TrEMBL record:
Keywords, sorted A to Z: Signal
Annotated protein name in UniProt: DUF1795 domain-containing protein
Signal as UniProt keyword: yes
Signal peptide segment: 1-25
Organism: Sphingobium fontiphilum
Amino acid sequence: MTLKSPPAYALSSVTMMNRASPLIAALPLILLAACARQEPVGNLPDDNAIAAAVNAAAAPIAQTPPADRIYVDPKHGFSVTMPEGWIRDASADNADGVVYKDPGAGADVRVFWQANANDQDLQQIVEAVNDGSDSVEGDFLGDNEYRGSATDGEGNAVVVRLLKQADGSIVTATFVYPEMLGEQYRPIAQQVLDSLKLGAPVKAESAAADGNSAAR
């Protein structure tokens, strides 16, 4: 299954905005932003990039990671642990989320918060995103969690996790990586998405929040 190209998504977004909330209309753009990066995988990664991915896979996220690898958003009430050695892309950040990249390997993680003023349930949101398309495959885990995967048609795999908070807002994490490096990146993607938590870790909150503020 592949994600639709931007023109096709534009048509889908118009239909959704005519009958759905701004959140639903915005979610396809979140997925597109994860895919339509400035480094499409048209060229094969070099040996150093492949070696970096292999090394990263061989060193999974520790059970107690350093605070500088934990991104905490106390304003929106979520936290996520990034892989070791990944670099924050401050130019892609905004007040609602953060982007981290694997230097030279063409992979990135994006975690963003989105309001849900109409308090739509998660199934309604996901169904609206996929209206008229089989582009994303996934499963609902209870009422407040969704996990899906797709490809962008440009050699990238996309893995996504959506969590609905108690106030109805949505936190979306997307992990994008070159399909040809799937064996190395799949376990890393799972670890990162698994680490997404609602509510900041008590022990890491202060140090990580200070780091987040300094990086902005």
